[in-house]
Input
Amino acid sequence: MAKDSDRRDVWARQATDYALEHGLIGLSLRPLAASLGTSDRMLLYHFGTKDHLVAAVLRESNDRAVDGIAALAPSPDIRTAVHDLWAAVNSPAYEPCTRLYVEAAALGLLGQEPYVTVVREANERWLRSLVTHLTRSGVARPLAKRIATVVDAAFIGFQLDAPLDVGTAARRRKVTDLAEAVAGLS
Output
């Protein structure tokens, strides 16, 4: 029989897969539990509250995105680094993580927990991953921190604008403009 912590970890990963497909807004425990082959009571037993489950989902999703950035090869220059980071953020594996983060951040802006706390934690880890990629790509750490902050803010804006964009060419131009702008910081 699996230990409770093992079961909790498995369910956190499976619940993350579910949330990446269905989103956080309107997340209901019964359909989630049914998709995991358990009951909402068992989820509450293992996670304590729905908020703790959501926090575990957000952490798992963020871990996946951070791992994706960590797996990137160093980029040859700042401009390429911006394009490489954007490609990773928008890859089929990690774009749903970004969408989930945007949902959580919006709910966090409204002061809802666990979103405020988990999004703050996620932001810190995410920015560190961007800084690490940039420094591995030859950018000095102080500059990498500045660039990571600008890139992160722009990427979130691009994500929010994505449904309004008229096509990939417009989005590609935005990323190229961002790459040029941050290259000018060096």
In short: The radius of gyration is 18 Å. The first helix runs from residue 4 to 22. Residues 4-183 form a domain with the Tetracycline Repressor; domain 2 fold (CATH 1.10.357.10).
